[in-house]
Amino acid sequence: MATSCARDDDRDFDSSELGTKEYWDSAYEKECENFEDVGDVGEIWFGEETMVKVANWIEDCDDIKLDDDIIDLGSGNGMMCIELRKRGYNKLTGVDYSDLAVTLSKSVAKSEGYEDIQFETGDLITNVQPNPCSCLNKQYKLVLDKGTYDAISLMPDDSISPRKQYLQTVKDVMTEGSLYSITSCNWTKDQLIDFFKEDFVLHSQIPFRTFQFGGQTGSTVTSLLFKLKS
Q1: Looking at the domain assignment, is residue 174 inside a domain?
Q2: Considering only CA atoms, which of 114, 57, 64, 47 is closest in space to residue 85?
């Protein structure tokens, strides 16, 4: 449930319990139980269609090879990594700040026969350097985010500081030639470009179905690809 927040930052939406670790720990505790009981992997954030669209773009991108290092920031139940592993990508890492999400993702990956996917618990918005999470001290060809920046943006009170630390983490795991994919339902294309403009240049956009209202065209999901500025 959304709660009101002071408009002391650039958000045009309210904070929410979805921006708290307590919410996600509780959610993944239930999903771990459901997976153990009935094999239900839980919710795929933004739905399977969005996941497949992102995976299709990666598969069609000549810049990304099957043996390139790829990391999913906020990997949740691990299904994005598993989808890519099914397509032949073999150097996959998922990181999430919920231990229970990592437990679930490892269990799901094992059940699919993909125990070679690396899943670690890590904090994307810590200012501790070097990052205590080993996978966040490496560089990757492709950095994925499907809803994690959204969740950070929903944190109670002012979200600017954690978002800036998230931005630093993204830069730390990239190198020249790396690509960064962000998929959001809270931020528009223009807002995302504005936030990342100091360090990134827009590479491309993954198209999603659009709608028209009041003469304006929009989309419920925005998915952009950025490259680090040289």
Answers
A1: yes
A2: 114
Tokens standing for residue 7: 């408009």
- Containing H/E element for 120? strand 118-121
pTM assigned to the model: 0.89
Q: What is the 3-state secondary structure (H, E, C) of 132-174?
A: CCHHHHCCCCEEEEECHHHHHHCCCCCCHHHHHHHHHHHHHCC
Burial of 229 (C-beta count, 10 Å sphere; 0-12/13-18/19+): exposed
End-to-end distance of the chain based on CA atoms, in angstroms?
41
CATH number at residue 85: 3.40.50.150
- β 210-213/179-184 pair status: unpaired
Read off the pLDDT of residues 73-114 as tens digits, 9 standing for 90 and up: 999 999 999 999 999 999 999 999 999 999 999 999 999 999
Quote the number of domains for the chain. Answer: 1
What is the pairing mode between strands 70-73 and 200-206? unpaired
